[in-house]
Amino acid sequence: MSSAITDRFTADHHRCDHLLAESERRLAAGDWPAAGEATVGLVAALERHFAVEEATLFPELAQVFRVAENPIEIMVGEHTQMRALLLDLDEAVAARDQPAALGILETLHFLIQQHNCKEEGILHPMADGALPERGTAIATRLTED
Ligand SMILES: [Fe+2]
Ligand SMILES: [Fe+2]
Predict the structure, then answer these.
(1) Which residue has the higher pLDDT, 145 or 136?
(2) How far from 121 is each of 48, 56, 117, 127, 137, CA to CA, in Å?
(3) Which ligand is nearest to the CA of 111?
């Protein structure tokens, strides 16, 4: 069975985890220019990842595998929650509010872990099974311009 979707989306989850850790380090150090840059990178990476899932992976999966509709709805709801936190993070960084920014990152980190665990354990393997011919093409969107 192809595992292109699980492999590539998991690798992108790890990339986002590293960016989050980098943001946390810069914020904890009070290095505002670097923290600003790091959080911009984190927000862009997460937005990109959510967008590929919502615009490509999830609709293609739902089309061939109706059972996936419910878990997809839950995943999209969690993306919405995380996007709200990214807006709060932007504001806290702009205001140079270190405790707020670190608190938001902590919450975000927790939500991402729960979310990615469900995708990597259930939804992405389901997509690999349902879309064996499409995995590589879909995953390529994670890195396309
Ligand atoms: Fe997701
Ligand atoms: Fe994901």
Answers:
(1) 136
(2) 21, 19, 6, 11, 21
(3) 1
pLDDT value at 20 more than 80:
yes
- From 53, 82, 56, 68, select the one nearest 126 (Cα to Cα): 68
pLDDT tens digits, one per residue of 32-65: 999 999 999 999 999 999 999 999 999 999 999 9
Question: For residues 46 and 109, what is the distance between their CA atoms, to the nearest angstrom?
Answer: 12
The first and second tokens of residue 33, run together, are 């220019």
Model-level pTM?
0.96
Residues with Cβ–ion distance below 5 A, ligand 1: 53
Task: Kindly state whether residue 37 falls inside one of the protein's structural domains.
Answer: yes
pLDDT reported for residue 71: 96
Q: Ligand 1: distance of its center to the CA of 31 in Å?
A: 30
CATH number of the domain bearing residue 45: 1.20.120.520
Flag whether 145 is in a domain: no
Number of domains in the chain: 1
